[in-house]
Amino acid sequence: MKLPDPTDSDSKPHDNLYYLADEAAMLDFGNNFSSQLQAGLVINLIGNLGAGKTTLVRGILHGLGYQGTVKSPTYNLVEIYKISRLYLYHFDFYRFNDYQEWEDAGFREYFNSASICFVEWPEKAGNLLPVADLQFSIKILETGRNIHIQANTDAGKQCLNNWRYQKKT
Ligand SMILES: Nc1ncnc2c1ncn2[C@@H]1O[C@H](COP(=O)(O)OP(=O)(O)OP(=O)(O)O)[C@@H](O)[C@H]1O
Ligand SMILES: [Mg+2]
Fold first, then answer.
1. Domains of the chain with bracketed CATH
2. How far is the CA of 153 from the centre of ligand 1 (A)?
3. At 106, phi and psi to the nearest 5?
4. pTM above the 0.90 mark?
């Protein structure tokens, strides 16, 4: 497969694949994408340990105006943010051992039309999770990351419509 040209990361490849050279680029990408978000979305973040999933959420939250610390939810399972009237839930299910833990933890009610949910390691909650509107898949390269965005629902497709990542210069 031909890798995207790193010098060309602000052009929009039609397959929604982007190259992000470093952490700052990942933060900028999230920051930029945050303008597309609206209440009700569920966003899955796929990628190996250390891929940059939390970094992406950090960029998105900063883009939405949140100025505090964005911690990894690895130990608490969820970090909760409120930005004006919007609730954002950032989950990390890495430590789940079986699907039922998600149901038992009572997280189902967090997935509602007034919130946005970001989910790291959705695989660990299996098919109990609602269908994600968007899925970001991050791949670790020798230097930097590739990120691929897939829309699974009309709401997800709407987020990608008319969006063109403009790299900060
Ligand atoms: N585009 C990028 N290029 C290079 N390094 C990056 C990029 N984005 C993030 N990183 C770095 O990757 C490391 C891991 O990031 P992060 O904690 O966000 O990963 P994660 O996918 O959430 O991992 P985990 O599954 O353990 O929660 C950090 O050191 C971060 O600076
Ligand atoms: Mg993480």
1. 39-140 (3.40.50.300)
2. 27
3. 75, 25
4. yes
